[in-house]
Amino acid sequence: MSIYFLDSSALTKRYVTETGSDWIRALVAPETDHRLIIARITWVEVLSAFARRQREGVLTPKEMQRVIQLFRYDLNLQYRVIELDSHTAQIAGTLIVNYPLKAYDAVQLASALQVEEELTYISAQPLTFLVADTHLATIAQAEGVRTDNPNLH
After folding, report:
1. What is the pLDDT of residue 120?
2. CB 56: neighbour CB atoms within 10 A?
3. How far apart are CA 8 and CA 45, in angstroms?
4. Contact present, 149 and 131 (Cβ < 8 Å)
5. Beta strands 35-39; 3-6: pairing state
6. For 3, left (φ over 0), alpha (ψ -120 to 50), or beta?
7. Are 91 and 108 in contact (CB under 8 A)?
8. Domain ranges within the chain, ordered by starting residue
């Protein structure tokens, strides 16, 4: 069992077929018993990704409803969700000041950093931040976070 924090760019691949989807789907399959963690804002970002793909004709309206329903099901049963609290917002603000990050990317990374801090405190195994955005991955690595990019698999 491993512990993974999935940002929206990685998690979308579970529901919409693209480069890295097979790898993500294998990694998050319930039988692997991996711990899967996401930020609360991932709901908004993934729905945005679905809507964009529908506008582009990649998803039909029926497929869009199916992936939303599947995501909602998985959200309720498989993911630990990190809420955006004042501590996470403070970390995200510091990241914004120190790096050229979009606001939601800063919240994603701040959430991952918060989880990693908790895991270090309890001496649990390390977190892997799954992110398909190389810019965000580079910044996460600069912050000492182990990353993996599904686009490389």
Report:
1. 85
2. 8
3. 6
4. yes
5. parallel
6. beta
7. no
8. 3-152
Rounded CA separation 72/43 (Å): 9
The correct answer on CATH 3.40.50.1010 for the domain covering 3-152 is yes
Label each residue of the chain as H, E or C. Answer: CCEEEECHHHHHHHHCCCCCHHHHHHHHCHHHCCEEEEECCHHHHHHHHHHHHHHCCCCCHHHHHHHHHHHHHHHHHCEEEECCCHHHHHHHHHHHHHCCCCHHHHHHHHHHHHHHHHHHHCCCCCEEEECCCHHHHHHHHHCCCEEECHHHC
What pLDDT shows up at residue 40?
Answer: 97
Below-50 pLDDT ranges, the chain: none
Q: What is the pLDDT of residue 91?
A: 98
In this prediction, residue 124 carries a pLDDT of 73
